[in-house]
Design brief:
Elements lengths: L11 H62 L7 H4 L18 H9 L5 H5 L3 H10 L6 H4 L2 H13 L2
Keywords: Membrane, Transmembrane, Transmembrane helix
Length: 161
Amino acid sequence: MFEMNPYQLPDADLQHWIMLLVAGVLGFIIGYIIRQATIRQLEAQLYTTENLVEDCLKANLNREETVILQRISARAHELNFTRIGLATRAEADDLKEINGIGPFFEKKLHSLRIYTFRQLASFTTEDVQKLSDIIELFPDRIERENWIGQARALYRQKYSV
């Protein structure tokens, strides 16, 4: 009978090249889609891992901050509260209004039960030195930044004394 040999067709080489090209393009497209899916999956894992690392760092910082505040709080008895005066957290002034007192220094002062401008305004030189030692400041920072003078001015301004 008759035989059909695909290699004997006049355009057999062209058909082979077309099939090879189509297979290559399909392989490229499938590989690209799979690669994009893998990239999205890895980015999601990276995002999750970065959040976990950030949470761990925050927890570690909070732990260190807590240890520092506990260490400071344990020395609160060294201050003379009969002269300085007592205050509660409910009476607290925003001590950050004093230049040189940031959020962490305010927390340190609160851990010593110092909440108001009136209390800071009552400090003597001896109290300032003791406070510098307790909250672990450079010895002359409170005087240099004039915390006591600023506290007196803010107290007068607040209560028009």
